TrEMBL record:
Organism: Flavimaribacter sediminis
GO BP terms in the entry: cyclic nucleotide biosynthetic process; intracellular signal transduction
Span of domain Guanylate cyclase: 56-107
Protein name per Swiss-Prot or TrEMBL: Guanylate cyclase domain-containing protein
Highest taxon of source: Bacteria
Any one GO MF annotation of this record: adenylate cyclase activity
Length: 135
């Protein structure tokens, strides 16, 4: 019992620190996105900082949601939203994107585009998401 009492307080403090960091990651990811949230926690982003990025923002909306919300019970409607998120979110993450915002039945995933240097042969940069040459 003495050993357990000796490690309880330090282990409790470590657990508290871990949980506070986990909560901060979750909160920041929810409000400013996974990548930006991580950069804020690492001290790479400060108030007033900005960065221009090339990105594709996709707008996804559930078809006929307003009509469905008038016909389907609330719990079933929420379950439908969860199913849609469960289908969309892994696909977005697998493609290197992140969901920036949820608005009712709409989702706004973002995909950062890394533009490569112009090719010596064509003089045009390749299409970043697929690596193919632009026409």
């Amino acid at each position: 019992m003495d050993l357990l009492e000796k490690v309880a307080a330090p282990l409790g403090r470590l657990t508290e620190i871990y949980m506070l960091r986990l909560n901060a990651i979750t909160l920041l990811s929810s409000y400013i996105g996974r990548d930006s949230g991580q950069r804020v926690l690492e001290g790479q982003v400060h108030r007033g900082d900005g960065e221009e990025i090339s990105a594709v923002i996709l707008f996804v909306d559930l078809k006929d949601f307003t009509s469905m919300s008038n016909r389907i019970p609330g719990r079933d409607l929420v379950e439908l939203l969860h199913e849609a998120i469960d289908i969309l979110a892994p696909q977005v993450a697998q493609a290197g994107g992140e969901i920036l915002k949820f608005m009712g039945a709409a989702f706004w995933p973002s995909f950062h585009i890394v533009m490569k240097r112009k090719s010596a042969t064509s003089g045009r940069p390749p299409c970043a998401p697929c690596g193919k040459r632009k026409p």
